[in-house]
């Protein structure tokens, strides 16, 4: 696969600043007008285990990572031995020469099976079980190896700025790896300095030390490796205002915008970042029209850390009953605990938004790794039949605007909405054109607050049968709106009823709302279709595979293998007619999913009876790269592969 | 306009067993609410699942009959969404201290300004009389095939350990006294826990009305001596009056010791009360100045044509890279 | 529909002995060689609400109830006004004449909407709003109305046996309704007396009083109504040993037989009856071969009432790890709470049996009513992909033997098994030929107890990769078997591992076991096929609809409309090939299900892509009658009905 | 053959943060188990989820790393299935008293003969330092953006209220003392609860090792005075010695009062112990004579060719109608 872009990786022990340095790298590039896509991999651990961050840059739109690394920046031994294999011919590895002779067996955090795989490769090449041994293989594969004597250079910085504390100096090691990378790429030093200054806005001393460090690193690299690395990185002037958005920030911000005023949560990776963002931004800015004038005011989002996810979901429901837009965010194990609460929201027609951050399952699974394995569960959470909406976002922009949609659906159709996102999106960063928040429109449906117009005292028919199934809904506290909620089947006032006729009426009323939703929700919110109408291959998928698929699709189409892509966003109510139409006319359908069983494929078969027979799946916890998809599609297209391809890339 | 008792009664058919202690509690709740004259439409009664869980249906207020064991988080959600409402949670002993024990403990930590009434009958009524967490070890009610194999919990002690700022016990058939306790619990600033001894004539043939009213416990004159006595009459004072931590600890200790008394002399009344501890809403208010006056459930969120009132432009600007 | 059988109903307030009297009725008939099918309907209430019991009798095999009542035995006003409408022309109603003038509005337990429906019928007939009014309509419809002056007769009994306490006497009212019924049917008095004596074995005084009551009732009826009722009930001599089995007893007994030694539960209707049965029979009889001789010994089943269903499922898992056959039984709300635990059992390959008694959902729903609405949830409980087996029984005999199968599957394939039954089965009674428990065979798979043969000390590869996916499993406490369990992805020893290659291996190992199960489980355990191979109509269904479908099918085939029936028993792994073969060759497929959305239909479409387009569904909480199915099939067959028919019978 | 410490160590890589108090607890567990010389294959260590939850992987015994908050019911299942095994449950404070509080309370009622060690660090370690249920109101650890909004639970008091028959506290860095406590807990007949003060240097910068060892609390000579002191040294005796209910209540009261002490003088040691209360297994044994000798997990259930050993013919015969 040809690449017109650049892929950089940095790694190190959890807690050693990998994330910060990658963000500085990404921002420096983005500042210069490059498009950025970054994502992070880490263990379920606090300190010490290996984590790494990939940043991909391009002048064009990119939306995913690639497996091949153009430049690997390391400052510890583990990163070098783990990732050297991923660097392409003509690529580069930056490393600390003082670690070269480190024996691999001394690296505690490498699993036994990974270690033995390394040894057999080294043995096959007759090389020692050391960092140098691994780098030697890379060198033989045509990779440039750049030694950066971090400590030496840092001491120089220390001399220059008058800092003698070694620990203060070594804190800069990771950013030095960034500086060395940019220096090798001949990227304007000013952009890096700029990014550093912004990053350390509140710590001017650290900023200045880093600035000095950058200069020294650039000098060293220029002197020692002058121009030896083939790839040059140039800024690209642009007038487009851009943001570098992180997945875990996205939804929190959108919830503020969308009017979410009660968020409950129980800590869980990777969902809780969102709640913590909300907590940190609990006092919010409002622009309210007073006497025809926009006035700035303050409001607040109440965020409650609960004792468990059962409390989180039921507390959010309570909040919704009392008139708040309320939601909770969680991941697999927490979501499993919410099954009963969701059913209660279903039978009581409560607008509830659950943001589900999928991660590797089942059970605790791979808590910090990626998977899209909860679709079927989200469609069928809880016993019995009740209506729900399941919406899946495919990238950060969709995530942002889908939040408003989720709350709107929840209130218009008075039901629980599961907004599905995933670890890959939560832990990725991407440049976007500045969002226009005014595109978000709030629709609260038949909510009544304050007082029921024209209603006398006495109970209110909250669950009144209507043609659409939706009935006016007073918030608790509304004058004239007294009614009851119960998890039991109930009559129009909400009182328990076991009468069979009432039961039928209520079941039908509730389920009917899904027909309404299916009818009202515009097609653009249900599906996205990309690529040529007639194509040799039709890819169908959902969620965060979108980016990698689009990137692969572009490459395939550019090569003449015509591919299109149907992204399913609304999984319940399912856009049956449209999907059936597209897929039954498609030449070759391939379902692409980040789970073992091809869950969406099953849903499509169930809803359309189109026999989806080809699958590209992945379940090793690492997101799909566009290269993997590209390769797999090609193999299926030319018939050289079975109908089910399992992708296995990723470290 | 003062509320009448009938204003608080819904016309939903009550199907508790004849003689059930729940009737006493329901009356006391109705009387208390009427006397406090709280607008029924500014009030929510939130219950769990069980015979007791049906209570909200019999009251003419917003009623939320939730899931087994979950009344407290539901109620907390309602209250935090709109702290201007009066919220009362209620439910069975199994509901509250069996399946709901986790919420029971952790709600104590929060101190949301609500009241929680537990209908303590020693059994799982609605599922036909299995032992509940308050039934003592070895007790064999008529509904049990074998004596209870678990130790019983002391709800008052558990509440004190969990941090409730109001801990009291009432008796279902002493309706007036119970009514006063309910008023105190509702008016208490903070999370109030009220355990109510509730005879279940259908399944619990040990802790019956007759038992509590002194059956088999005769005074010199051969008259039955009630097994409950009122704390306040004995001069007991459970109320914390200063911010002194020492006083608080003293009162908690006193209440704990009192809570050991059970059986022939069972105290009812307020064991402990402390309004010196800020409520959860006060703590939220300290962090979010607009919380009280413009709470989540009452905030306007959209203007004309659905335009969001919240602006996130500043937050987006923080993410700008060029 | 022609009937060659007899349908009897008795009703009364909860707690007034309806159940006992119905059982006496059923046993009296069964003793006489009649086949019996009985089922009970009741409110979620302890005392006072209306409940009723239907008993159907026949000389032939019957497996379900019919809607039409041949004889309604009432002893209160509510039963008369609620059920008089269900009695067929030429049928009979027994009632207490002293209640005739009771106004309906005085009956507290009748819901407002039911009351207003009654009034409008009475008004249309110009009749008063009383019991008599309702009975008059019945009379006009050709129903025989038999007044039985209960109190008067009871006083006579009192005089005869010297009992003066009125409350002691009125306790017999319900059984008197039974006696009156049999007297009208001219059924041998001795059979009734016999049944009574057995019922009151431990209360001889009550027995004698009842015997006297029976004689007096028979005399009264003979004298007053001599031969006026057309239907006579005769005993049918049989040499077949028969039992009258109740659903809630069935599984408990089978668990004892199947070696279940730890049962955990949290009380819930209708599941907890089973656990209470087990508790009452905790000390069990064993027959152990000692020195080539069968010796009688004692064993025990430990039953633990837990604090909630999360504890129930996780405690059962703990028990299974330590070598017990362990299970838990629950219904919808409890099952919802077990989702997380089930996933843990899945990833740790723990043999766990969950017996799921479906009832009306969603949420608390209709807690004492029937539904089969949990199929989809059982197939997808818990986040992520993990293997499970889902087996659904169709009648009490299947329930009994499926218990052993469930434990065998769980241990052979080392995974959670959801054994699905439902309220209709739990609360039904049916005569069967005496079961042969020796048909049950226990298979424990690769369980190691005591000591790992030939294994030295040191950790054991519990999750060793194998061709089948199944690995030897030491119970905790086994010498040489030390290993670890974790909900995280793990290596062969059970230690946490985030390595992607290990992950793939483990996912594939686990999921592969389903292929093995699909291969090994015989077809007879997966499906049942009934009726002619080629038929105009193919019904497909699962669970307790089986009885009503078979009864309807027999009637339809007898009439010349050829119908066959595919009963799906194993829903996961799904018998795809067989089902596809049958359904794709079928002329007209109708999916019959007790849920709103036709859940099995969806599964069939998903697995086979056969477009199941016709549905007969019901979700009003009352089980399907064979008549309803009969009627609906006929309508679909002759094209006079839409593709989806909702059944709505039942009170 | 006596066990060596190394016999109890697994070779699974330990990834706790440098300086984590968990290391102290792990060492103490290993030392205690080695000294008690329990066959590792007759032992199970059952944990919840959290940093602490990884413990079983580091021990060479049967290890069960369960779900967040569920260690107790899992452990109970193992133990009741085979009461001849030694079962130890362990996990974090969030695990045990947050999401697991319901099991915590109800396990106290059961009194199964196990030990439960809680790693009490005031934070949710593995999810990056959110407040745990034991963190006190208003405390702001470095991991928190705002001071803790909830009251902290007193684990000892909660355990006493729940009915634990052994209640103790240890300190992670006093490994020898902790080891002795663990031995006592394991050897206790009944359900033993051991709360361990566990510094989390990464997230909790308040209750640190330095804090417990007396930082800022100097004696006259300017030496730091440790903030923990050993109960037994003071002559405190928490052991119930008779079947007298009065004595039991006295000892519970004494323990509760002791449990109020926290901060500058924090007692460690055994607060309460009562072996007079029958264990759950004893209660089961009283009902089922074969329970102990032939427990669920060890019962044979099938003979040759899978023939079930249990016979239900008698039960079926009861259902005969003809
Ligand atoms: C999750 C769940 N499990 C079990 C049940 C069944 N259930 C209904 S009421 C009840 C117990 C009621 O006992 P208690 O809370 O003491 O209330 P009471 O009936 O005594 O007033 C149970 C277990 C349920 N509804 N939900
Ligand atoms: C149901 C569920 N919710 C949330 C989580 C995420 N989670 C993992 S560890 C943890 C908290 C750990 O805190 P604690 O129990 O105190 O243990 P520590 O890490 O401090 O030892 C949480 C919330 C989970 N694994 N499962
Ligand atoms: S079962 Fe007991 S608690 Fe329930 S209604 Fe009847 S008497 Fe009351
Ligand atoms: S986060 Fe805290 S508790 Fe967890 S390993 Fe690190 S120091 Fe220990
Ligand atoms: Mg109760
Ligand atoms: Mg902790």
Can you describe what's shown?
Helix content of chain A is 39%, strand content 22%. With 651 residues, chain A is α/β, with parallel strands linked by helices. Chain A folds into four domains: 6-225, Pyruvate-ferredoxin oxidoreductase, PFOR, domain III (Pyruvate-ferredoxin Oxidoreductase, domain 3, 3-Layer(aba) Sandwich); 245-439, Thiamin diphosphate (ThDP)-binding fold, Pyr/PP domains (Rossmann fold, 3-Layer(aba) Sandwich), CATH 3.40.50; 446-521, no CATH class; 525-646, Rossmann fold, CATH 3.40.50.920. In chain A, the strands form five sheets. In chain A, strands 6-5-4-1-3-2-16-7 form an eight-stranded mixed sheet, with helices on both faces. A seven-stranded mixed sheet of chain A has the order 11-8-12-13-15-14-23, with helices on both faces. In chain A, β24 (589-593), α22 and β25 (614-618) form a beta-alpha-beta unit. In chain A, α5 crosses α9, α7 crosses α9 (204-225) and α10 (247-258) packs across α11. The longest helix of chain A has 22 residues, at 204-225. Chain B is 30% helix and 15% strand. Chain B contains ten helices and ten strands. In chain B, the strands form two sheets. Chain B has an eight-stranded mixed sheet, sandwiched between helices. In chain B, α8 (245-260) links the parallel β9 and β10 (266-273). In chain B, α4 (101-110) crosses α5. Chains in contact: A-B, A-C, A-D, B-C, B-D, C-D. Chains A and B meet through α1, β7, α10, β8 and β9 of A and β2, α2, α4 and α10 of B. The site of one iron/sulfur cluster (SF4) has 11 residues of chain B, from loops.
The count of DSSP E runs of length 2 or more, i.e. the number of strands of chain A, is: 26
| Backbone CA Rg of chain A | 27 Å
> Can you tell me the number of structural domains of chain B?
2
CATH topology-level fold name of the largest domain in chain A: Pyruvate-ferredoxin Oxidoreductase, domain 3
Helix amount of chain A: 25-40%
Q: Quote the distance from N terminus to C terminus of chain A.
A: 20 Å
Which homologous superfamily in CATH is the superfamily of the largest domain in chain B? Thiamin diphosphate (ThDP)-binding fold, Pyr/PP domains
């Amino acid at each position: 696969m040809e690449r017109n872009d650049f892929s950089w990786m940095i790694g190190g022990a959890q807690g050693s600043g990998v994330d910060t340095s990658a963000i500085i790298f990404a921002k420096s590039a983005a500042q210069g007008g490059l498009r950025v896509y970054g994502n992070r991999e880490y263990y379920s651990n606090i300190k010490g285990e290996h984590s790494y961050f990939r940043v991909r840059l391009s002048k064009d739109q990119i939306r995913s990572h690639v497996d091949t690394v153009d430049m690997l920046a390391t400052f510890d031994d583990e990163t070098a031995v783990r990732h050297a294999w991923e660097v392409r011919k003509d690529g580069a590895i930056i490393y600390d020469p003082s670690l070269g002779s480190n024996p691999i067996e001394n690296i505690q955090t490498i699993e036994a099976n990974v270690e033995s795989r390394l040894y057999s490769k080294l043995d096959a090449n007759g090389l020692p079980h050391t960092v140098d041994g691994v780098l030697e293989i890379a060198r033989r594969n045509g990779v440039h190896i750049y030694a950066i004597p971090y400590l030496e250079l840092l001491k120089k910085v220390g001399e220059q700025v008058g800092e003698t504390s070694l620990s203060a100096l070594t804190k800069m090691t990771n950013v030095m790896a960034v500086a060395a990378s940019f220096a090798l790429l001949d990227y304007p030093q000013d952009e890096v300095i700029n990014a550093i200054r912004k990053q350390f806005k509140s710590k001017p001393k650290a900023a200045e030390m880093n600035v000095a460090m950058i200069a020294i690193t650039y000098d060293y690299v220029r002197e020692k490796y002058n121009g030896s690395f083939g790839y040059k990185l140039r800024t690209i002037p642009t007038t487009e205002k851009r943001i570098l958005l992180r997945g875990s920030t996205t939804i929190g911000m959108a919830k503020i915008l969308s009017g979410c005023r009660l968020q409950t949560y129980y800590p869980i990776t990777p969902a809780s970042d969102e709640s913590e963002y909300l907590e940190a931004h609990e006092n919010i800015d409002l622009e309210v029209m007073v006497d025809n004038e926009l006035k700035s005011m303050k409001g607040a989002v109440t965020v409650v850390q609960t004792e468990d996810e059962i409390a989180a979901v039921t507390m959010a429901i309570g909040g919704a009953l009392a008139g708040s837009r309320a939601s909770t965010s969680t991941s697999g194990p927490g979501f499993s605990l919410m099954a009963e609460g969701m059913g209660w929201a279903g039978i009581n027609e409560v607008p509830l938004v659950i943001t589900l951050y999928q991660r590797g399952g089942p059970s605790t699974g791979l808590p910090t790794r990626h998977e899209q394995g909860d679709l079927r569960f989200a469609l069928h959470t809880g016993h019995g039949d009740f209506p729900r909406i399941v919406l899946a976002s495919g990238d950060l922009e969709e995530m942002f605007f889908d939040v408003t949609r989720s709350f709107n659906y929840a209130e218009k159709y008075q039901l629980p909405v599961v907004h599905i996102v995933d670890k890959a999106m939560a832990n990725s960063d991407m440049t976007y054109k500045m969002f226009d928040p005014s595109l978000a429109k709030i629709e609260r449906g038949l909510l009544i607050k304050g007082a029921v117009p024209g209603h006398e005292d006495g109970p209110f028919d909250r669950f009144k049968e209507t043609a659409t199934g939706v009935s006016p809904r007073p918030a608790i506290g509304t004058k004239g709106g007294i009614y009851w909620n119960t998890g039991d089947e109930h009559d129009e006032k909400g009182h328990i009823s076991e009468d069979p006729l009432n039961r039928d009426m209520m079941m039908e009323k509730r389920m009917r709302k899904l027909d309404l939703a299916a009818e009202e929700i515009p097609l653009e919110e249900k599906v996205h279709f990309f690529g040529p109408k007639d194509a040799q291959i039709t890819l169908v998928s959902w969620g965060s595979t979108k980016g990698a698929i689009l990137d692969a699709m572009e490459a395939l189409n550019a090569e003449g293998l015509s591919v299109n892509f149907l992204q399913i966003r609304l999984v319940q109510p399912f856009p049956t007619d449209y999907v059936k139409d597209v897929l039954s006319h498609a030449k070759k359908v391939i379902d692409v999913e980040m789970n073992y069983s091809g869950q969406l494929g099953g849903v499509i078969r169930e809803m359309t009876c189109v026999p989806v027979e080809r699958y590209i799946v992945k379940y090793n916890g690492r997101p799909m790269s566009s290269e993997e998809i590209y390769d797999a599609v090609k193999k299926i297209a030319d018939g050289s592969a079975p109908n089910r391809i399992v992708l296995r890339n990723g470290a | 306009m003062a509320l009448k008792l009938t204003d608080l009664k819904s016309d939903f058919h009550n199907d508790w067993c004849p003689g059930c202690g729940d009737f006493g509690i329901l009356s006391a709740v109705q009387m208390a609410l009427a006397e406090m004259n709280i607008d029924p439409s500014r009030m929510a009664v939130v219950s769990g699942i069980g015979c007791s869980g049906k209570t909200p249906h019999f009251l003419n207020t917003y009623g939320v009959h939730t899931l087994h064991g979950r009344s407290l988080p539901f109620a907390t959600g309602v209250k935090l969404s709109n702290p201007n409402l009066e919220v009362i949670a209620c439910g069975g002993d199994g509901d509250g201290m069996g399946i709901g024990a986790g919420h029971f403990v952790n709600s104590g930590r929060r101190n949301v300004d609500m009241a929680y009434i537990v209908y303590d009958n020693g059994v799982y009524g609605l599922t036909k009389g299995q032992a509940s967490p308050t039934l003592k070890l070895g007790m064999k009610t008529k509904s049990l095939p074998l004596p209870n194999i678990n130790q019983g919990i002391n709800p008052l002690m558990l509440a004190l350990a969990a941090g409730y700022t109001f801990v009291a016990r009432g008796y279902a058939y002493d309706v007036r006294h119970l009514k006063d306790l309910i008023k105190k619990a509702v008016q208490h600033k903070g999370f109030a826990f009220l355990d109510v001894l509730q005879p279940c004539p259908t399944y619990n043939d040990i802790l019956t009305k007759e038992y509590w009213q002194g059956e088999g416990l005769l005074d010199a004159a051969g008259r039955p001596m009630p097994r409950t006595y009122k704390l306040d009459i004995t001069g007991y004072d459970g109320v914390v009056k200063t911010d002194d931590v020492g006083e608080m600890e003293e009162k908690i200790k006193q209440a704990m010791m009192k809570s050991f008394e059970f059986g022939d002399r069972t105290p009812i009344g307020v064991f402990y009360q402390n309004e010196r501890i800020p409520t959860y809403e006060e703590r939220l208010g300290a962090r979010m100045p607009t919380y009280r006056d413009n709470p989540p459930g009452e905030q306007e969120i959209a203007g004309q044509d659905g335009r969001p009132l919240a602006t996130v432009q500043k937050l987006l600007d923080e993410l700008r890279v060029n």
